[in-house]
Amino acid sequence: MQELTPNVAIQQNALGLYTGIVQTQDGNILIDSPYRTDDYKAWGNRAAKSESILLVLLDTQYDRTLSAKGCDCIIVSQSDFLLPAKPRQQAVKLQEELLGSGDGHEQVGSSNRPYSPEISFDQNMNLFFGGTEIFLEHHPGSNVAGIWAILPQEKVIFVGDSVMVNQPPFLAYSDPAAWAADMKLLASRAYKGYQIVSSRTGLVIQDQVREMGKLITFIQNSIVNLREKNADLDTYLELIPRILKRIEYPPAEGELFFNRLKWGLTTYYELNQA
Hints:
The chain is α/β, with parallel strands linked by helices. It is built from eight helices and 13 strands. The chain has a single domain, classed as Metallo-beta-lactamase, Chain A. The protein starts with a strand and ends with a helix.
């Protein structure tokens, strides 16, 4: 466990997500969660001091929703978490082909989701719990139901999959234009001095946010150009090597990251056709 402040800590769970625990006077607030219920033991005395009451899910990624299964908390999400996506046979077929890689995604509104969140919101929600204030903001750049969890008193912000270091982004349910704007905001003076927590990397700095912004802007401009030309799916998939060239990653992850982008671009293409 890595302590960020006396009341906030993070730890990487069994699925690789960096999850957070916010200790308050009346109980704990989880930002995403351990993989299994018994993983709470690994949180040590911090989790044992009081019961975990609220669980904030930062988006609809499959590993994130799987982490929440079996968690005895009130679940909080953005309202688009509950909306079904358009059924698309090609993307579903591709998803089945890629799930074996360990890097699959769950389609929004999938029938496999075992629950519905008890609390949801549209744009913003302020949580005042146990003397602690948390702002939840809808940031749909990286995911249709993406949330940033901001603790202004602690100067900590959880940004989910908005920032990815040395790996490609998840594009399936993204909005690249909104994502690029999110990166400008996160790299601005508004968050100077904040500890920024990425779900895939842990703590990141604003220089890494700016690098992510450059990558997303490249992807956004490329997609805009393809949409203007009414390009087919195969042309979209030609972006994959161009994206990977902009990322430093271990060669052993090449196939995994190629599959991530193939699935993401295929799903994005199908969901955004007129």
